[in-house]
Amino acid sequence: MRSFGVFRRYRTLIRSNNRTLISSSTIIGFNKLVGLEKGFCSYENEDPKLKDLLDYLENLKNYEKSGVPKGAGTNSQDGFDLGRMNRLMQQLGNPHKKFKAVHIAGTKGKGSTAAFLSNILRQQGYTVGCYTSPHLWSIRERISLGRKGDPVSSEALSCLFHQVKNIIDKAIEMENGSLSHFEVLTALAYTIFAQENVDIAVIEAGLGGARDATNVISSSELAASVITTIGEEHLDALGGSLESIAMAKSGIIKHGRPVVLGGPFKPHIERILRDKASTMSSPVVLASDPRNRSTFKGFMVNNGKCFQSCDILIQVEEDLQMFIDLHDVNLLMLGNHQLQNALTATCASLCLRDQGWRVSDESIRSGLEHTYLLGRSQYLTSEESAGVGLTGVQILVDGAHTKESANSLSDTVQLTHPDAALAFVVAMATDKDHIAFARQLLSGRQPKAVILTEVGIAGDRARMTPATLLKDVWLQAALELGIDVTDIWMETDEKFQVEQSGCSPEKVKTTTTITIGASVEESMKIADHILRLGKVDRPRLVVVTGSLHIVSHALASCRV
User: Fold this and answer.
1) What digits encode the pLDDT tens for the residues 164-187?
2) In what order do the strands lie in the sheet with 322-331?
3) CB–CB of 417/539 below 8 Å?
4) N or C end of the chain: smaller count of CB under 10 Å?
5) CA dist list (Å): 384 to 247, 397, 560
6) Confidence grade of residue 233 (pLDDT, cut at 50, 70, 90)
7) Coil/strand/helix, residue 292
8) Which residues contact 557 (CB under 8 A, 6 or more apart)?
9) Distances in whole angstroms, Cα of residue 377 to Cα of each of 315, 356, 374, 519
């Protein structure tokens, strides 16, 4: 790893009741390229068989790396040109017309809902194709196949790419090079679903809905559409308001096909979605209707696995008539938000049952209970924690990156570890609402430490938020909330030492420490070191969050 060879002057401040009590200076060497350590770049760990495909995709516009242009997801002249995706699909023989699909959009929860629904259908015996984004380890994760839900094999994906490469080449030339990474990958997913003759595909939209590349599905192929939640994420790309976001996502509603609304939604947002459904003559199922419930019963640990038990009751009498009553459903997906996602997926499966698909109550139960996604409220095993040299501490990784998901994360922490000493390790992309995220996490149980760091986004630094900027944001949020903080500037490869900062251990014990770590692994160690300064017999919990990208880094560090 090359060294910057840069030395910066940092100061140590201790703030108490908004007053500076101590000020000192230190010189620290910064010798790491933050967050882009070996093994974390986009395709570093991919199968060599995929080299040709990955090299090809690398030469296309990748908005996950660069960020999405203003208005790109809106149904306007600024929006992505869905016509070029339709033309590409036509040249490939319209593979998306050869299978039925459930199309899922939403600000949060669409990936988890897609996983729940896919597993319900697999438990019933269907061969299911599932397309989601982003991925943690390999691009193959985005495309899963069959009755087991395994990622597409390297061989199958590489073979398909070489089969259709000439067609894609011509399409790119015809579109003057404007086809994107996501559009080509979506086309490959639809093509392999058609080749594998899946019974049904569960498709997660990438951005918005109306102009998303996945939205070439028409009413004749659509079994149902699902809109999980509406929140203020990707505001610039989706029109600048909650209302414009709702309009963009409602673009997946198709004529005469049922739509499941997750929610809960603000009344005027629900009205926008219902009005769009009405214009499309689409039956509406509201998963968050008060008559539908997913009731939490308790949190348990069995054979080292954490799960929450719940009862699920759905009784729909408008537009469609649906009923199910399941007791003691044990979900590996934790948190109140996952109770809602499970309820939404169950409503979608009942919509399919209403259309004649065989979906038994037992398959719904089993599918929900077998669903587990890496990086979503995931507690690491003691062996995984030991992989980064940490023992006796619980590590939770979660890809939360919005105010709403931060609230859900806080609820999960309170549910599972109500008495633990808490620390956060955070890295985020530039296009997120950093201050709202910080406020929400600080509004819950007060952490003993917050360590800010940096990771590459999709293997690139373009959308990476500098840790210094994040640190200022968290200090501002703490100030607004009246939280006493110890502001320590520490950015070093060496073991964190309180003495280095000029702060007394007692100050660190009685305030929330906010500082910077040179890498995700180093940040987790700093967080645990600070927690160890507290009561010896108190459980310790380090939460790694802010994006799925930091989760990927944390999991890679902890692999055993």
Assistant:
1) 999 999 999 999 999 999 999 999
2) 293-302, 305-316, 322-331
3) yes
4) N
5) 43, 12, 6
6) confident
7) coil
8) 387, 388, 520, 521, 524
9) 29, 35, 8, 21
Burial 333-344 (b: 16+ CB within 10 A, else e): bbbbbbbbbbbb
CA–CA separation, 236 and 86 (whole Å): 25
* 301-304, Cβ contacts within 8 angstroms, sequence gap of 24 or more: 304/381
Cα 32 from Cα 553, distance rounded (Å) = 15
Q: How far apart are CA 231 and CA 404, in angstroms?
A: 8
Q: Which domains does the chain have, with CATH numbers?
A: 48-370 (3.40.1190.10), 378-491+510-558 (3.90.190.20)
Cβ burial, residue 354 (10 Å; 0-12/13-18/19+): middle
Burial class (CB in 10 A: 0-12, 13-18, 19+), 321: exposed
What is the spatial distance between Cα 109 and Cα 127, in angstroms, rounded to a whole number? 23
Q: Rounded mean pLDDT of 322-333?
A: 97
Among 387, 371, 413, 389, which Cα is nearest to 545's?
A: 413
CB of 374 closer than 8 Å to CB of 337: no
Please give the mean pLDDT across all residues of the chain: 88
CA triple 514-434-500, angle to 5 deg: 15
Q: Are 424 and 441 in contact (CB under 8 A)?
A: yes
Asked if residue 145 has pLDDT above 80, the reply is yes
Q: Please name the residues in contact with 66: beta carbons below 8 A apart, sequence gap of 6 or more.
A: 460, 462, 463
7-11, 91-95, 441-445: range with highest mean pLDDT: 91-95
Query: How far apart are alpha carbons 63 and 109 in whole angstroms?
Result: 21
Percent of the chain at pLDDT above 70? 88
User: Residues 15, 31: contact at Cβ < 8 Å?
Assistant: no
- What SS3 state is found at 418? coil
In this prediction the pTM is 0.88
What do you get for the CA distance between the two ends of the chain, in Å? 23
- 414 in Cβ contact with 445 (< 8 Å): yes
Our CA dihedral for 59, 65, 71, 76, rounded to 10 degrees, sits at 30
* Residues contacting 346, CB < 8 A, separation 6+: 116, 120, 287, 312, 314, 324, 326, 364, 368
Q: How far apart (Å, rounded) are the C-alpha atoms in residues 345 and 288?
A: 12
